[in-house]
């Protein structure tokens, strides 16, 4: 069967599934008919709510890792940052979005690598009240996507966008947010505020910039280039920040943020370190 015939056959299954519970599995089947991906996840970001997993392939093996992602790891995910900070939409590979030094980041070490992923690509699509990230990943069990396969995914982007907006609602449509418990309604906003404000009561503005970028996976060289300072100055800011925070490594920095956030009851705003250190 030709690629076009294969695509058409799977598309014929997706179309009648729009607005039903069968949509995500049908769309996932279409994508997997084009490329060999053994880790496929649909992540919904709606309003200020915590990310919702609308579909994933391996619930038994990855459920605990996805919970960690939903509880806060998503804040430094390159795809999430591309959509929220850079307002990018379309098809992207991880290499196109990840900062230099990403594989040395605590996000990579404590979530990405432990989840089994070797590489990732995916779609960022505007929908009603937010956006969806359709992530196609591969583990060590399958071969890395080649250039032709990545191009196929780029070529069908307009169709994938239209299908998702037909199912989840278009960005300009008046669709009510799905109900969520009170704690979850603003969780994503609260977590983002906590990350952006982390260290501000203890560190200088420049030191805050440096540690925030470290937590996002940037290398010393990348930080220096983005802030237009020397690598030695970056190292000095990092050294001073670590001394003030009484830590010795990036992993300790990452866990300090998590611990300080968990220590605050009913967090609303401000630096979580204000009453922690």
From TrEMBL:
Keywords, A to Z? DNA-binding, Transcription, Transcription regulation
Q: The HTH luxR-type domain covers which part of the protein?
A: 196-261
Molecular function GO terms recorded:
DNA binding
Write down the SMART domains for this protein, in alphabetical order: HTH_LUXR
Any one Gene Ontology BP term:
regulation of DNA-templated transcription
Q: InterPro entries given for it? A: Sig_transdc_resp-reg_C-effctor, Tscrpt_reg_LuxR_C, WH-like_DNA-bd_sf
Query: What species is this protein from?
Result: Sinobacterium caligoides
Name the chain's protein. Answer: Regulatory LuxR family protein
Q: Which PANTHER family match?
A: DNA-BINDING TRANSCRIPTIONAL ACTIVATOR DEVR_DOSR (PTHR44688:SF16)
In terms of Gene3D superfamilies, this protein maps to:
Winged helix-like DNA-binding domain superfamily/Winged helix DNA-binding domain (1.10.10.10)
């Amino acid at each position: 069967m030709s690629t076009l015939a294969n695509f058409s056959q799977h598309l014929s299954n997706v179309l009648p599934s729009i607005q039903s519970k069968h949509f995500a599995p049908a769309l996932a089947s279409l994508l997997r008919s084009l490329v060999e991906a053994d880790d496929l996840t649909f992540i919904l970001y709606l309003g200020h709510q915590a990310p919702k997993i609308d579909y994933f392939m391996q619930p038994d093996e990855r459920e605990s890792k996805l919970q960690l992602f939903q509880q806060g790891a998503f804040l430094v995910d390159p795809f999430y940052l591309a959509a929220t900070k850079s307002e990018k939409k379309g098809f992207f590979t991880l290499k196109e979005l990840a900062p230099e030094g990403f594989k040395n980041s605590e996000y990579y070490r404590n979530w990405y690598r432990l989840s089994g992923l070797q590489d990732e690509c995916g779609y960022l699509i505007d929908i009603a009240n937010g956006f969806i990230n359709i992530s196609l990943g591969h583990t060590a069990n399958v071969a890395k996507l080649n250039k032709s396969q990545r191009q196929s995914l780029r070529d069908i982007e307009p169709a994938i966008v239209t299908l998702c907006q037909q199912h989840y609602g278009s960005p300009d449509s008046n669709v009510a947010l799905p109900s969520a418990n009170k704690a979850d309604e603003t969780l994503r906003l609260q977590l983002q505020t906590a990350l952006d404000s982390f260290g501000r009561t203890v560190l200088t503005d420049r030191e805050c910039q440096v540690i925030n970028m470290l937590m996002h996976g940037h290398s010393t060289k990348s930080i220096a280039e983005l802030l237009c300072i020397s690598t030695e100055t970056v190292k000095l800011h990092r050294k001073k920040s670590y001394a003030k925070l009484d830590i010795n490594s990036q992993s300790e920095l990452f866990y300090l943020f998590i611990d300080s956030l968990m220590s605050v009851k009913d967090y609303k705003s401000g630096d979580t370190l204000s009453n922690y250190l």
